[in-house]
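hey all, quick one before standup. I had two proteins in the batch that finished overnight and I want to keep them in one place so we stop losing track of which output belongs to which input. First protein below, input sequence then structure tokens straight from the run.
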Amino acid sequence: MKKRNILIAIFIGTLALRLFLAFSIPNLTHDSYFHLRQVEQIKETGLPLYNDDLSYGGRELLFLPGFHYLAAFLSFVIPLGILAKILPNLLLSFLPIIIYLISKQISKTPTAPLFSAFIAGLLPILYSTNSFSPFSLFLPLVFLAIYAFMNIKKNLYIYLASFFLLSVTSSSTFLLIIGFGIYLLLSLMERKKIFLSEIEIILSSIFFFIWVQFLFFKDNFLENGISFIWQNIPAQIIQDYFPKVSIGEAILLVSVIPFITGVYVVYRSLFELKGSKLFLLISLTISTTILTWFRIIQFRLSLAFFGLILAILFASFLEDAKKFFSQTKASHLKKYASIALIILLGLSMGYPAVLAAINQETPSNGE
């Protein structure tokens, strides 16, 4: 019961901080207004605006409308101007709970998943508090699907519902498919037992995802060929759309402590802990790295995904650290060590998170 209260406190604290920062900044980010326009169009006509008459000579818009339909439905209850700030922050505030549930699957230490949830709630890369986009729905759904897949026999319907919503929300669901493929490959290499149910659900997911994408993007694929993967962006400006970020800046956005501990856990999982349940998480990290390298998914999304994986891996690191300290003369100091770790994480992540929110690029009232 105490752990549940702490988890609820993390959720409420995360949501309160996010909403405070969101309403402290008057406007949304630049890209948010495209999505707001789509929500307004759905609310008025029931269909998204795929042909933009306001663009010079007209413009065909291609996107998956799952997030926009959700926002349009909720806008009948909450005014859209307020909903645009509340909905994304509410969705992302559920991430600590989902990360906690996943961390419990890989760690037997009772308090370790709570630290993972705490990290997920303060991850600096997620503090674009004024961004109204499908990104805020995609991340909770993809990690809910990962949680359900880890115990697919028990959570089959949760997986099916989350994967369906993912497939109509973002094409970045492709990283989950690639991750599953790498997971099967690593499992075969390490002679880890692969359950038939896992193979069946992976194959079904692949075919369903391809079918949904074909329904929405078949004309674009037939017209542009393989370049539709890069959204037909001209080579001259693709560098601006997929900007390069320095390693130091990337580590700061996912926080230094989870990054260092994540590297340690990945090493132990691949070279020492054969057949570990962490293979799936490591496979997803590899798939994200590959897709980012080939500029198939945007860097910001890949960094957020990577940061949340690191938050989960932190629970495994904490379990190893607890075993180590229990064998030393400093075992009686573990209570103070936990308090010191909370303070250290709060300081090293809280300030960058607030700074990331303050530095969001939003248009002025005049613009």
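OK second protein, same deal, sequence then tokens:
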Amino acid sequence: STRKESSAASDVYKRQIIGMKKNIEPCYYGDYLALDKILGAQKLQSTKYGEPAHEEMLFIVVHQVYELWFKQLLHELNAVIDTFNQAAVKDQQLTSVVHRLHRVIQIQKLMNDQIGIMETMTPQQFLSFRDYLVPASGFQSIQFKQLEISLGLKREYRIDFDKQSFYNRLSDDDRSLLEALEEKPSLFELVDKWLARMPLLKTEDFHFWDYYRKATDEMLNDDKETIEKNAFLSEVERRQELKDWQSTRENFDGLFNHDTYEALLKQGKFRLSHEALLSALFIKQYSEEPVFNLPFQLITALTEIDEQLTLWRYRHAMMVQRMLGTKIGTGGSSGHHYLKKTTESNRVFLDFFNMATFLLPKSSLPEPVSYTHLT
């Protein structure tokens, strides 16, 4: 009987091996990568008006590579969004999500380094073909706009210039595509819902927020006393320090009162829902607990994605200033000034950055209750 079972198992294994699909026709490197199309896709605008501008080839290749990386970023993010767009997220799925987000971060770092290659072009070399590109600009990168919207930078969170002109320079088809994407849940929205439904802070025997409020009250009172007794501060500096302290005090108060938090939310002080912020804060406070470590890695990865995107905007703004000074952009924006403003404003996961405000030393925290899994 044992020999028969072993033989049957062997036959199944052989069928699996034999049944593995192999390529019927040989795969040729250049055909597989469509190199004839990719390497033939660099059409210099400058040749239409005279001698080709040598640097235009670099300009085209760098931007085409960006678009290829945007495609891969969207491929990874869409898979992550699909995972979170479910009633529950299993631990195994969360492992894949974190892995994919780490890949996104590595691609972003490579994209940031790519700006250094563009900066090997001098301003005068850029000017030799720049005017031939009007009115084309980065505004028309549909994939970058998809990336921003998918992460959570939807129209209502954009600066005024973007709100007015975000869709003006696009074709009807591209505009429709992005408007439809605006109606779908972004990664930010889905992560917010995922955090908000976590079974945290609801155990009768574990009064985390009682401990937390007492510890933060002591910390804030110590901070206020330090400001008031600091002999090196002028009266003007002291008043400003106390004003900043009061603002921080109000943010802390929002943690303990839903209505207060909602008022701060409307003022733009927060973006995460109250429940989501509390869960994220709890996870960060107890990041070393095994059950919270993957969620902590997720929060950390999203924070770094936002940081890398901000660094990309900043380096892009510096490059544009270096190339154009204060000239307007080819798409009609204020060039460097516009890009600098988006660097400061177009943040998605800013709450995760600011969460360090609310963190307490490990010595001030109570022991957590035991959790077997999160959803």
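Flagging for whoever picks this up: The mean pLDDT is 87. Residues 283 and 292 are 6 Å apart (CA to CA).
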